[in-house]
Amino acid sequence: xxxxxxxxxxxxxxxxxxxxxxxxxxxxxxxxxxxxxxxxxxxxxxxxxxxxxxxxxxxxxxxxxxxxxxxxxxxxxxxxxxxxxxxxxxxxxxxxxxxxxxxxxxxxxxxxxxxxxxxxxxxxxxxxxxxxxxxxxxxxxxxxxxxxxxxxxxxxxxxxxxxxxxxxxxxxxxxxxxxxxxxxxxxxxxxxxxxxxxxxxxxxxxxxxxxxxxxxxxxxxxxxxxxxxxxxxxxxxxxxxxxxxxxxxxxxxxxxxxxxxxxxxxxxxxxxxxxxxxxxxxxxxxxxxx
Length: 290
What we know:
With about 290 residues, this protein is α/β, with parallel strands linked by helices. Helices cover about 45% and strands about 15% of the residues. The chain contains 9 helices and 9 strands. Helix 6 (about 160-170) packs across helix 7.
């Protein structure tokens, strides 16, 4: 009776097969019997509603069990609707249509939430995460570093003479440079590293599982890529050379909060700028880099 509706229908022979398909495919609605070979309908319903990727799937239980206890248990495990056999085809189509509209609405809300979240934690110029997200993310990484006892480094870098360079590039030239530097940081560090635009010419990179020498090596490699004469050249503008100053702090005290860790990296960056070094490493004892 659902053949008249614009649906793609799949049939599973047992509970295990149903779960396998539901967890691996993008499915909107499940017509679920309680009495199934193997895993029963109650367990399938509960597992779907607990799963991060499957909780929005709409579940319509269709069963011959008419007792109130079965119906109550179905809703307790997360069923969205409940029908008792024999089923009227017209009613089934109405219920299915209602649940599909609900799923569509939930997907729309989720999409709006994702957009709002993304806009709240990203920098509109570079597309990198912003300072607010850096603090939340760094807080989690610091706790994980303490718990798992792995090294954690924070790199902060700034573009030398950014105002002068931006002015030489004309209208929107400064934003173009920031975008290209941000893109280079994101593409040339590891996937587990988090690149952030802190504002103006300052960027940060969180480096899990990285000690001092490893952080300096990665920082210098990326700095050389950005400093290369072929980087960010606009034929219509004067030749451009971008140089970064970098400061690195190692998470070395469990008493530090997020702000202290960020401040240590800023201090290292300031030392690099003041002493005209390309990179300065600040740890328990101040050890200069290059």
